[in-house]
Structure formats: C-alpha cells, structure tokens
Amino acid sequence: MSKAAALLRAFDPGVDVLSTRALAARTGIPRSTVHVLATTLAGEGLLETVPGRGWRLGPLLVGLAGQIIERTGLVAAVEGALPGLLRVAGQEVHVGQLVGGWVVYLHRAAGPIRAPMDNRVGLRAPAWRGGCGKAALSRLDPADVDERIARLCRDEGVPAPDRARLADELAAARRTGYVVSSSFQAGRTSVAAAVVDADDRPVGGLSVAGPSALFTRAVLARTADDVVTAAARARGALPVVPATAAPAPRPATVPAPRGPAERNVVVPPPR
C-alpha cells in the first residue's frame, strides 16, 4: 500500500506524465515492481496509460477529490461572496484550499480580459508561494507554520522559503487581515485574505490577482477591503464540521481586520 501511495505522490504539480523508469527513479522502487503496481492502479482508475510515454493520474481521483472539495465547502461558500470583486479589467479571482503545507487552487474566475497567469485550477503549490496560501498560513500559530513548512520540504524535497521574509509577511497579514503578494509569478500581484471556519481555523484563501501595473495604491486599498469583506462573508457560509477527537491546529491570535481608514497599503517590491 505504501509503495502504491508513493507512485501517486510522485506526480507533482509540474509533471503530467511519468514513464516507468522515471517513477522508479523518483520513488526508489524497482522498475519491475513499479510496472506491476502502475498496471494495478490503472486497472482501478487511479492511473491511466499514455501510449508511448508512460502513466498519468487517473479519472477516479477526480471523483475522490470532488468529494473532499464538497465536504469542506470552500468553493460553495465563496461563490456567494464573489460578485463585485472584479472591478478592474484584467483582474481575476482565485480560491485555494490549505492542505498541510500546500495550497490547492479550486476555483478561478475572470472577466472578458484575461492576462496569462499560472494559477490553473487543480494546481498544487507550496502555500508560502502565493497570496491565497500566505493568507491561510497567517491564521495559524507560527510554530504550526514552521512545522508544516519543515515537513513539506523534508518529505517532498521542496526548497525552503526565506523564513525571515515569510515571517514578516505573515506578521503583517495578521495585523491587517490581508496579504499583498508578488512572489508567485513575475509581474503579477495578488491581494488575498484567509477564509476561516467557525473556530478560526484557516480553510484556505481568496484572492484578487492580475498584472502588477493594475494595482495602483487606490486599487490596492479598495481591493483589500473587498477581499477581506468577501472572505468574512464566505466564513458565514462554510458548513459546520463536527468536532473530532484529534486536536485541531492552533489558529494564530489575529486582531480583527482594521477599517479602510486605518489601513496603510504598501506595494511590496518585486521579487
């Protein structure tokens, strides 16, 4: 079972198809065993064959992932909060769910003018790379953030972020209630707020993003207000999840987002 799981985990966000040889190299499992396991997984719909190239994730995973998305209710909760967010042509809305140290993009909405962006639906990225993930991380206790980052970097071989810079960004987000980020894609900026449940645990993030040139100081201030308001509205629409025996992650102690007159929106330098 663990070897089968290792094969599925080998398909990271930047890789669509892997050969038997590549799967063996990534997992350390002998090629003969990889072939047997991959064939079995393909028979169950967890993988599928790509003639002449190898294997890719199978259609059964879509249905399984759909159940998880529906259970958390993030997309459904955010839908009612989206109208009015896109006030500037070229902006778009992203919704990402926090999963351990990852953020998984579940929804993307744009107007008639759409700039090329890397936040495709289904993309999984380290949470500290983009606005949605940073906003969600900011609602966790710093020790929890550190543990998630360390585990992801250790288990997945992901390069570690600049811890000091990230800590400063998350601290600022805890004070203001939102994140302004330009680190996910060159020339793009996002303004994001965390969507939290009734117990203040972060479920994910909601952002308005687009070409950095669109985000003048006035647009940043207005967008920050809109995103914080939308995230708060989404919180009220999230389903109530029954408590479990396992202890929940400790949310950070976050002051209420400040009003428009109290906010000082700062455009971060390009990274």
UniProtKB/TrEMBL annotation:
InterPro entries the record matches: GAF-like_dom_sf, HTH_MetabolicPath_Reg, Tscrpt_reg_IclR_C, Tscrpt_reg_IclR_N, WH-like_DNA-bd_sf, WH_DNA-bd_sf
Compositionally biased spans, kind Pro residues: 248-258
Hydrolase as UniProt keyword: no
Region (Disordered): 244-271
GO biological process: negative regulation of DNA-templated transcription
Organismal lineage: Bacteria, Bacillati, Actinomycetota, Actinomycetes, Pseudonocardiales
Alphabetical list of PROSITE patterns matching this protein: HTH_ICLR, ICLR_ED
Domain HTH iclR-type as annotated: residue spans: 1-59
Location of the IclR-ED domain: 60-240
Protein name from the UniProt record: IclR family transcriptional regulator
Pfam families for the chain: HTH_IclR, IclR_C
Source organism of the structure: Actinomycetospora cinnamomea
PANTHER family (alphabetical): HELIX-TURN-HELIX TRANSCRIPTIONAL REGULATOR, ICLR FAMILY (PTHR30136), HTH-TYPE TRANSCRIPTIONAL REPRESSOR ALLR (PTHR30136:SF24)
Molecular function terms, GO-annotated: DNA binding; DNA-binding transcription factor activity
This protein's UniProt keywords: DNA-binding, Transcription, Transcription regulation
Domain of life per record: Bacteria
